[in-house]
Amino acid sequence: MNDGELRVRRLDPRAQLPSRAHDGDAGYDLRALDAGTLAPGERTLVRTGIAIALPRGHAGLVLPRSGTAVRHGIALVNAPGLVDEGYRGELQVLLLNTDRVAAWSWEAGDRIAQLVVTRPALPEVVETTELDDTARGAGGFGSSGLR
């Protein structure tokens, strides 16, 4: 199945194109344009130096990298970050160091996040006075228990 092209514009000659580490990987790695360091508890916006044009009817989800999260406690503040089809500005990644003790540093070109291109469902919004009953009902946070 061909989902079109992910068109990428380098905004800086040092920028690297998104790439997938393995065939079948869903995410394209996004790389830092510049080196940096995050102190414990600090957050920062990291430039990628690229802008993209998503295929028509698609959206992009910017997600954390699992290895960086597990080893260093690095998270994305707004995960997932949503990239709308019509956005043409620079992709930037809002990183947060959740570690309470250790700073985390990266070099220019390091993989800092991943981009998943997806086709969102866009149903028509219909106002109603009643919703169908379900087994879950209005049970929210924690309603299914731990075990």
Structure overview:
The relative contact order is 0.25. The chain has one domain: Deoxyuridine triphosphatase (dUTPase) (Deoxyuridine 5'-Triphosphate Nucleotidohydrolase, Chain A). Strands 1-4-8-6 form a four-stranded antiparallel β-sheet. It has a four-stranded antiparallel β-sheet with strand order 2-10-5-7, with no helix packed on it. A two-stranded antiparallel sheet has the order 3-9. Helix content is 5%, strand content 36%. The mean pLDDT is 94. The chain is mainly beta and 147 residues long.
How many strand segments?
10
CATH architecture title = Distorted Sandwich
Number of helices: 1
> In which range does the helix fraction lie?
under 10%
Q: How far apart, in Å, are the first and last alpha carbons? A: 40 Å
> What is the overall silhouette?
globular
Number of domains: 1
What fold name stands as the CATH topology?
Answer: Deoxyuridine 5'-Triphosphate Nucleotidohydrolase, Chain A
Q: Which strands sit side by side, in order, in the main sheet?
A: 1-4-8-6
How does the major sheet shape up? 4 strands, antiparallel
C-alpha Rg, in Å? 19 Å
CATH superfamily: Deoxyuridine triphosphatase (dUTPase)
What topology does this entry show?
Elements: E1 7-10, E2 27-31, E3 36-38, E4 43-53, E5 59-63, H1 66-72, E6 74-76, E7 81-83, E8 90-97, E9 104-106, E10 111-118
Antiparallel strand pairs: 1-4, 2-10, 3-9, 4-8, 5-7, 5-10, 6-8
